[in-house]
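Quick one: structure for this chain?
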Amino acid sequence: MKRREFINKTVQAGTLASMPLSSLYAMVDESVKKSSSTKSNYDVIVLGVGSMGSSACYHLAKKGHSVLGIEQFEIPHQQGSHSGQSRIIRKAYFEHPDYVPLLERAYKNWKSLEQESGIQLYHKTGLLYFGRSNHLLIKGVKEASKKYNIPLHNIKSKDYSQFNIPSDYEALIEPDAGFVTPERSILTHTELALQNGAQINTNEKVIKWSKEGTSIKVKTNKGTYSCKKLVVSAGAWSNISLPQLKQNLKVTRQIIAWMIPEKWDDYTMPNFPCWTIADHTNKGIFYGFPILDTGKFGTPIGLKLAHHYHGEEYHPDDVDRKLDGTEEEKLISFMNNFLPNARKSTHVMKSCLYVNTSDENFIIDHLPELDNVIFAAGFSGHGFKFASVIGEILADLAIEGKSDLPIDFLSLNRFN
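Got it. Here's what it folds into:
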């Protein structure tokens, strides 16, 4: 049976939706190995097949363009920003209301991707917002909700007994929010890109790229390729791939933890939603997720939470990511105050990388004076939910030279 026929039959049978993550890894790994080719010239080369790059490869290949994706690690991997089981997705966007139209498109694209693949990627849990009424989080979600008619409801914090919320905090819930599974999403985008004819090379490191005439030449540790258009979605390595952006991007190391709670069932779906808390005694925002099934979502297991605030500056190639205990102490202190029964012990702590811009908004643009080089960078810890639409935008910019989606506020020239 041909591979495409096998995929189609498993989709029709509905078996991919509950496929263990390890099996999906194996499926994509096999597809990548089978996609090897001696071809060296492409319409588009995508550097970095992670959150945005895998989506770009999918959209480009689906539109019939020859595309090569080059990834320096496995797909997916734990060296950058996209591992860790879950990423919050929401529409009442406090960061900037102009993101909401992009989120509307992202939700639509996630749904289309689920229908095409048969794999569930978006999980609707609702999202709680707690904070004082004058905090940016609370003011911002209310503004976005009002402007775009996004459902957002007042609740009583005592309705969620797992939390200990100060009496002067507002409590809101966005019912249509939830989380997207990053590993499954990247694997699904990659698998469908391969099915549509993309070439994906893993464990291949780019040494340099350069413009030669009207083409772009890319040299790696394994070969040399050329393309009409180059898309750079290198995540924490954007400064290395595009040194022109160095002054606009700062890489920081962030800490994520999984805790073992006193009463396990109190923190599993559907008993426990995603949540955000603007603790007035700390900068930034704390956030977390319900406990997820290990087989379906991958290890580690436990109640996941993190602090959305810039960590220490970091070089992405620094392999020493040992934690000194200060980060855990901060999370434990927070939990003692706001989730007093949610931690019996710490199961595991991990790190990921943020790529921050000065205004914490993304950059999606052509490289100055090089219209055939397109890039997406600076997702500042809140970008993954947009992956399904960023890939579409990158494909449009590469092929059409423009996008009909509202991305002007994300252009590079805003820093000039």
